Amino acid sequence: MDKALKTEPVDVPIRVRYADTDKMGIVYYGTYPIYFEIGRSEYMREKGFSYRNFEEEGYHLVVVNLEAKYYNSATYDDLLIVRTSISDLKSRGLTFHYEVYKDGTLVVEGKTKHICINRERKSSSMPPHLLKILKDVESA
């Protein structure tokens, strides 16, 4: 996974719900991409631009790649911290990096690569003001 992060991370607490676990009582591996999405949405909101605003302007960030590496397990009612940052930023897309912690121990590390599309569902450059916000965050 990417180790050289370019942006200041945003931490989001998530309490594991019973519905997030499998028959063994462990967080189901397919739940982590949902946690990644929560981290991604809150990251953008924290940096000054909600994903809702992005969609209202006619854009979407489509996931074109997802990676996850599992180190430890989490169980029902654990309090997790999803740490989200951007590890790559280009005019037409970006890569988010995630680290999920339980009591300071790394549980899962992942990344999602996204491309920007417009209302016509065609690849597009990101809106200039969003790119500026993200680049300002990157250089801070």
Description:
It contains three helices and five strands. The chain has helices spanning 32-46, 51-56, 128-139; strands spanning 10-15, 60-70, 79-90, 93-102, 105-117. It has a single domain (10-139), classed as Hotdog Thioesterase (Thiol Ester Dehydrase, Chain A). The chain has a five-stranded antiparallel β-sheet with strand order 1-3-4-5-2. It is elongated and about 45 Å long. The protein starts with 9 loop residues before the first strand and ends with a helix. It has 140 residues and is of the alpha+beta class. Helices cover 24% and strands 37% of the residues.
* CATH topology group: Thiol Ester Dehydrase, Chain A
Percent helix range: 10-25%
Total individual domains: 1
Strand content: 35-45%
